[in-house]
Design goal:
The protein has 18 helices and 25 strands. The chain has 554 residues and is of the alpha/beta class. It folds into 3 domains: 257 residues, Alpha-Beta Barrel (TIM Barrel); 145 residues, Fructose-1,6-Bisphosphatase, subunit A, domain 1 (Fructose-1,6-Bisphosphatase, Chain A, domain 1, 2-Layer Sandwich), CATH 3.30.540.10; 115 residues, D-Maltodextrin-Binding Protein, domain 2. Helix 5 packs parallel to helix 6. The longest helix is centred in the middle third of the chain and has 23 residues.
């Protein structure tokens, strides 16, 4: 099986400044297969690792690299954060122990200038830790195997630079940058690359197939979204360059030499693409895949609108603390219009405009802004909740958190993702030191809340009241707290979050001790495995005390 290689773009720039030794060390720790770096040449002929032609953007000096000596380059930066030479970088890669189960990464040298390429090539030719000869491949197309203590080198970049490398070294492993249109087969024969490098937006399945039929690797750059990564993995690309190597590493299999570890990607990430792609990858019918893709598109629109729309006149509903803004109404009206256009036979039950269910009819439960009080008071903790159910069986759920840009998505039996990254809740062994999320009954305490919080305090659990029941349930899926509890379940507010948490592995406990995702009455606890079993007795006892004492006011 051919496994996609993880390429750290200029190291791991999420962890450290790009193209520095710290960034390269972080990339090795992240488990990259390849470290990509850029080279420039100083005025005294030293190959350094830097992308830009000047040192302005990252280092604050508005001078071309070619007009500065190495000594002047050394002046830039603070402490260990400096511009390294190419030789120093190879020393680091050779000396650093890879993560257990991973080999030493290859170094991919990227250059846009033929002269810079030649200077770098001569440095690497003479370096004691670089591969001197191409060795037999290790099972992937065109990849060389470094011996112990050595660093394998590959090349990519400008066509003239690659031509220079090929002239200098007939056995060099290099990439051809394909910039669109038909593949130039004549150029490929002259250049003899091992890889065709394509900007990711230009890739199609047919192009990937054509590259593979030529016996070449298909590489792409620069991809930072888990959803885009998943789509590219589904296309069969062999190499992805990213600024987020830890995310990509979590999505692809790892060949340890003994076994192939299971990939962490989810077909739900393809809801970002189209229904046919999602259906083909997940086994869903195209109809259900359309439900998922439309829900995803609604979430994207809601994030943009909620972030930018004015609140308008704030009015009240049941009482003075039950408020509504123009954003609530506008989002609900837009969502209803989309669902009516896409699925005319579906029903909508919404927070602001109501609605009725009918037996057997697919019904969308919508809260356009869960956390309206937070929104009106400029507290960035609100969400949009949308769940599709048939009778009491939830099928699709999406929650959008506008202020973080996160989209949580789940399909019954298919798992849950956050912005394309699979969600899986780990087991909890103890309660002490953890946090539990709950909500008020509007603006008041709910019956049993005070004794429940007291029992949590006895267990050294901290309680958080965040102001959005949707997020209280949803964010348990991303392990933001060990559990979320609402005193009264409402499908409009909670069904989407409950399905997402459940598909991520949370345990569901109703206030009657049952485990229905869509109870007809009572409250609900959503918690990590291990925590639910410890929290339920505390909640059960608090409910019993409240029943004996009568309702508790705020």
């Amino acid at each position: 099986m051919n496994v996609c290689r993880v390429v750290g773009h200029r190291g791991d720039p999420e962890s450290a400044r790009e193209n520095t030794l710290d960034a390269f060390a972080a990339a090795i720790e992240a488990g990259v297969d390849v470290i990509e770096l850029d080279v420039r040449t100083t005025s005294d002929g030293v190959s350094i690792v830097l992308h830009d032609p000047t040192t302005l953007r990252l280092w604050g000096r508005a001078r071309p690299v070619g007009e500065q000596t190495l000594a002047e380059i050394r002046e830039l930066g603070v402490g260990p954060i400096r511009i390294p030479t190419l030789a120093e970088t190879i020393d680091l890669v050779a000396a650093t122990s890879p993560r257990p189960g991973f080999g030493r990464p290859t170094v991919l040298v990227d250059t846009v200038d033929a002269d810079d390429a030649e200077v770098a090539w001569r440095v690497l030719r003479d370096h004691p830790h670089t591969v001197k000869e191409t060795e037999p491949g290790n099972g992937t197309m065109g990849q060389t195997t470094a011996g112990r203590g050595t660093v394998a080198i590959e090349w990519c970049g400008d066509a003239q630079a690659m031509r220079r490398i090929r002239e200098l070294d007939p056995s060099a492993t290099l990439a051809h940058n394909h910039l669109g249109g038909a593949l130039d087969h004549d150029l490929l024969r002259r250049q003899r690359p091992d890889t065709v490098n394509v900007e990711w937006t230009l890739l199609t399945r047919d192009l990937v197939t054509e590259i593979h039929q030529l016996g070449l690797r298909c590489a792409t750059w620069t991809v930072d979204s888990a959803e885009e990564m998943t789509w590219l993995l589904a296309l069969g690309v062999d190499q992805i360059t990213t600024n987020r190597p830890r995310v990509l590493r979590s999505l692809v299999p790892v060949n340890t030499g003994e076994n192939l570890m299971v990939a962490g990607s989810s077909p739900l990430a393809l809801a970002w693409a189209d229904a046919d792609a999602l259906a083909g990858a997940s086994g869903l019918t195209v109809e259900v895949a359309r439900w998922v893709c439309v829900a995803r598109q609604i979430a994207e629109w809601t994030i943009a609108h909620t972030r930018t729309a004015t609140l308008g006149r704030i009015t009240t509903k049941k009482h003075a603390a039950d408020i509504v803004t123009a954003v609530d109404v506008a989002v609900e009206e837009r969502v209803r219009a989309i669902i009516a256009a896409e699925f005319p036979d579906h029903l909508v039950v919404g927070e602001e405009l109501g609605g009725q269910t009918q037996p057997g009819r697919p019904t969308w439960y919508l809260d356009p802004v869960d956390g309206t009080t937070n929104l009106a008071n400029h507290l960035p903790w609100t969400s949009m909740s949308l769940a599709l159910a048939v009778d009491d069986q939830p099928v699709v759920a999406v929650v959008a958190q506008p202020w973080s840009g996160e989209i949580f998505l789940a399909v019954r039996g298919l798992g849950a993702v956050r912005n394309g990254e699979p969600l899986q809740i780990g087991a909890v062994r103890q309660l002490a030191g953890t946090a539990l999320l709950t909500e008020l009954a509007g603006h008041e305490f709910w019956p049993g809340m005070q004794p429940f919080l007291a029992s949590l305090a006895d267990e050294h659990v901290t309680t958080r009241v965040m102001g959005s029941g949707t997020l209280t349930m949803t964010r348990i899926a991303s392990q933001s707290g060990i559990g979320g509890l609402v005193h009264e379940f409402h499908a409009i507010d909670h069904l989407a979050g409950v399905l997402i948490a459940s598909e991520a592995g949370a345990r569901i406990v109703n206030s009657d001790g049952g485990d229905s995702l869509f109870p007809s009455h009572g409250g609900m606890l959503v918690a990590a495995p291990g925590a639910a079993e410890k929290l339920w007795p505390l909640w059960e006892r608090a409910l019993a005390e409240a029943s004996d004492d009568g309702p508790i006011g705020g």
